[in-house]
Amino acid sequence: MKIRTYLVALAALAFGSTTRADEGMWLLQLMKQQNSIELMKKQGLKLEADDLYNPNGVSLKDAVGIFGGGCTGEIISPEGLILTNHHCGYASIQQHSSVEHDYLTDGFWAKNRSEELPTPGLKFQFVDRIEDITDIVNQKIAAGEVDEVTAMTRPFLNKLAKELFDKSDLKGKKGIEVQALPFYAGNKFYMFYKKVYSDVRMVAAPPSSIGKFGGETDNWMWPRHTGDFSMFRIYADANGEPAEYAASNVPLKTPKFLSISIKGLEEGDYAMIMGFPGSTSRYLTVSEVKARMEAENQPRITIRGARLGVLKEVMAASDKTRIQYANKYAGSSNYWKNSIGMNKAIIDNDVMGTKAEQEKKFAEFAKGKPEYEGVVEKIDAIVDQTMPLTRQYYYLAEAFSGAIEFGSTYMIMDNLKKGLEEKNDSIINKSLEQLKEVYAEIHNKDYDHEVDRKVAKAIFPVYAEIIPAEQRPAFYQIIEKEFKGDYNAFIDAMYDNSILANQANFDKFMKKPTVKAIEKDLATQYSRTKIEKLMSLAQELNGTSKELALLHKAYIRGLGEMKEPVPSYPDANFTIRLTYGNVKSYNPRDAVHYKYYTTTDGILEKENPEDREFVVPAKLKELIQKKDFGRYALPNGDMPVCFLSTNDITGGNSGSPVLNANGELIGCAFDGNWESLSGDINFDNNLQRCINLDIRYVLFILEKLGGCEHLIKEMNIIE
Question: Does the active-site annotation cover 654?
Answer without folding.
Answer: yes
